[in-house]
Amino acid sequence: MTSTELRHLSWRVSSYSGGSGNCVEIAALPSGARAVRDTKDRDGGVLILDASAWTTFLARIQQGNSLE
Q1: Residue 1: closest CA among 52, 47, 54
Q2: In this structure, how many other beta carbons lie within 10 angstroms of the beta carbon of residue 37?
Q3: pLDDT by residue (tens digit) across 7-47?
């Protein structure tokens, strides 16, 4: 995706940030993938996770497992 396309996505801030600004933002992509960026550096890099990787990521977090 181009930087212009990324800017026009509907980004959501994690509800767990507590307003501290130390958080990530997530945007859903049409393919089912997710884009992830740092709230403090919105013009910085963006991590794109395909639908399968996103599902695995969420499942591991919900189970309290390490991401290693």
Answers
A1: 47
A2: 19
A3: 889 999 877 666 666 788 999 999 999 999 998 888 889 99
